[in-house]
Write a structure and sequence with these properties.
There is one protein chain. The chain has 256 residues and is an alpha/beta fold. Helices cover 44% and strands 14% of the residues. It contains 8 helices and 7 strands, in the order βαβαβαβαβαβααβα. A 7-stranded parallel sheet has the order 3-2-1-4-5-6-7, with helices on both faces. Helix 1 packs across helix 7, helix 3 runs parallel beside helix 4 and helix 4 runs parallel beside helix 5. It binds nicotinamide-adenine-dinucleotide. Nicotinamide-adenine-dinucleotide binds next to helix 1 and helix 6.
Length: 256
């Protein structure tokens, strides 16, 4: 399987979890990867794994809430690899978890800066290059929380709902200019973020037994699949890894 041969893909928040798994899978399928996290050193293990599958990658420090840092990340990727074919706006945080009246206003605003403004920053930085080359793929990592309120997650749900509209707004503007835009909900995945959620004890998601969570290689396979041409007919949509049609096309096992 090497349908991403020659592609250059940026993944934010790729030091662990879904972003890290997606980076390794895309590299395995032949893409060159630009991976980042607030601190590039945190991506060392992922770089090693990419090396292990014969891939090529570099890691950068990039806080997605800082527009200049994201713009620099896109520039550096083009300097190193000559182009960008796709950006996966994956970096995200769940905190603050708590009832609205108990949340710290600065932490609440920080969540929106990372989860929503961070996605805008990725799109804003990549889009001019995509328009110039007449092609590009944007994948915004969404969540079921974009569509349903969950107790204690007011910031997270609001930010992800904003990401859903940002996906639609971008598809509306860019869809006819050769740019494919997707929202992608990865399911409930066994990552550090779910560890924070379990420890909070707030709402039904925190009660899910860890063994019931999905492995990160499932959303990773779907993200890699979305980066290829086979996803063209789905452009502009918000997709969910739990959708059976999508699973079949990606090659994931049916649920249940
Ligand atoms: P995680 O906490 O394991 O990983 C998050 C990654 O984002 C890490 O690499 C972290 O360093 C990075 N990050 C955090 N803040 C950042 C910032 N300001 N700038 C740059 N990088 C930053 O979480 P995960 O579960 O892998 O989540 C990845 C994405 O998937 C997030 O957008 C999350 O909201 C979404 N998501 C996760 C689940 C789940 O069940 N795990 C469900 C739905 C959606």
């Amino acid at each position: 399987m090497s349908n991403l041969n020659g592609k250059v893909i940026i993944i934010t928040g790729a030091s662990r979890g879904i972003g890290a798994a997606a980076a390794v899978e895309c590299a395995r399928q032949g893409a060159k990867l630009s991976i980042s996290s607030r601190n590039a050193a945190d991506c060392a293990d992922v770089l090693e794994k990419i090396d292990g599958v014969g891939g090529e990658a570099f890691a950068a420090s990039c806080d997605v809430s800082d527009f200049n840092a994201v713009e620099q990340l896109v520039k550096e990727t083009i300097e190193r690899f000559g182009k960008v074919d796709a950006i996966v706006n994956n970096a995200g945080i769940v905190d603050p978890v708590g009832l609205i009246e108990d949340t710290d206003p600065q932490e609440w605003a920080r969540n929106i800066s990372v989860n929503l403004v961070g996605v805008y920053n990725g799109i804003r930085s990549a889009l001019p290059h995509f328009y110039k080359q007449g092609s590009g793929t944007i994948i915004n990592i969404s969540s079921g929380a974009a569509h349903n309120p969950l107790e204690g997650w007011s910031a997270y749900c609001s930010g992800k709902a904003g990401v859903y509209m940002m996906t639609r707004a971008t598809a509306h503007e860019a869809g006819e200019k050769g740019v494919k835009v997707f929202g992608f909900a990865p399911g409930v995945v066994d990552t550090d973020m779910q560890g924070i959620i379990r420890a909070s004890g707030i709402n039904r998601v925190s009660q899910l037994p860890r063994e019931n969570l999905s492995p990160s290689h499932e959303p990773a396979a779907a993200i890699a699949w979305l980066c290829g041409e086979q996803s063209d007919d789905l452009a502009g949509q918000e997709l969910d890894v739990r959708n059976e049609d999508l699973r079949k096309r990606v090659g994931l096992p049916a649920i249940a």
